[in-house]
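Need residues for this backbone.
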């Protein structure tokens, strides 16, 4: 008789890459150990990554730690009414965690946190989600651990849950909101501005005020196709037709967007036409493309409209190229300001609707 193979039991822990979600990962894993037995914590954001992680593991129970979970994964979880935890914190706390604990530079940390914020927006709006906030649940670790156990229907005694919380505190894993104000104010202003510009719109959303404006500063982009050259300097357009600016390769929430691309030109560069294109994913699928002709203007603002569908490959990038060879000239990227358009339908005035009815 062959041994019976127990089905895998999977628990999902999602959140911004801050101390709160790391605490949640650990709490869920220990609750599962007490209730079901050995467990692995695996990292996965897509169905493909999840499948690969499960194949590599030798245990029957898993905590899936996701920081940029995909819409495809969310659709499957929703279809099967799978419960999960979403841990939200101040995006600045996630940025600080990536910089101080994991050694990421400003650009990489900003990309990671912005992408995580965008990925989690739709995950907070389903009945299967237990949404935890550092400023609220994070101040009550014991009560929050008990809530997590109930959410996943894990039968763990109160004394054991208290032991789990104390044990995590002993190894400096905490759910408490980070004291980031001093660290943030001491951060060099250029670095702080890059992060704040890209993240403040999500701070507004998580505070319940709707998604605010997102600003991608030029430091997040690079020259041509070379990520080693940041686009924080004048870009020489001399030569053949080619990509001049690319980036920032950041996930955006689904929806309709208007991007204001601010560009500066030298006198010679202002006589050349340029293609501005938003593209998606590693295959660079075009979301929109327009041509601008500065016609002598030294500063030019181009409004570009595009839509990110739920099935759109991510991340999203801007690509700027010259449309004809240039003998000389320089271009400077100012910033890219992004605003998500209202999803509501425009209203037709009553008098016009009545006239149409007749």
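Answer:
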């Amino acid at each position: 008789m062959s041994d019976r193979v127990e089905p895998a039991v999977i628990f999902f822990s999602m959140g911004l890459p801050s101390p709160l979600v790391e605490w949640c990962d650990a709490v869920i894993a220990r609750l599962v150990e007490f209730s079901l037995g050995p467990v692995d914590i695996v990292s996965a954001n897509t169905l493909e990554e999840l499948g690969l992680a499960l194949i590599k593991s030798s245990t029957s129970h898993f905590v899936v730690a996701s920081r940029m979970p995909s819409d495809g994964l969310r659709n499957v979880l929703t279809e099967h009414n799978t419960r999960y935890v979403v841990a939200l914190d101040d995006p600045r706390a996630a940025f600080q965690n990536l910089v101080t604990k994991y050694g990421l530079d400003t650009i990489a940390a900003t990309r990671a946190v912005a992408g995580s914020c965008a990925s989690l927006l739709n995950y907070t709006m389903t009945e299967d989600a237990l949404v935890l906030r550092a400023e609220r649940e994070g101040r009550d670790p014991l009560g929050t651990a008990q809530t997590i156990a109930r959410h996943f229907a894990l039968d763990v005694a109160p004394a054991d849950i208290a032991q789990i919380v104390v044990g995590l505190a002993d190894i400096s894993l905490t759910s408490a909101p980070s004291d980031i104000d001093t660290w943030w104010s001491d951060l060099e202003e250029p670095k702080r501005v890059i992060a704040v510009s890209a993240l403040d719109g999500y701070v507004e959303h998580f505070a319940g005020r709707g998604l605010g404006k997102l600003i991608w500063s030029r430091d997040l982009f690079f020259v041509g196709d070379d990520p080693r050259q940041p686009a924080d300097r004048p870009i020489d357009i001399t030569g053949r037709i080619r990509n001049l600016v690319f980036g920032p390769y950041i996930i955006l929430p689904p929806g309709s967007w208007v991007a204001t691309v601010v560009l500066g030109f030298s006198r010679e560069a202002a006589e050349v036409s340029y293609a501005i294109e938003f593209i998606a994913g590693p295959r660079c699928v075009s979301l929109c493309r327009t041509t601008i002709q500065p016609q002598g203007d030294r500063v030019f603002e181009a409004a570009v409209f595009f839509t990110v569908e739920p099935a759109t490959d991510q991340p999203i990038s801007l690509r700027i190229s010259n449309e004809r060879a240039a003998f000389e000239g320089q271009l400077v990227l100012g910033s890219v300001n992004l605003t998500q358009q209202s999803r509501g339908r425009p209203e037709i005035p009553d008098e016009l609707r009545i006239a149409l009815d007749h």
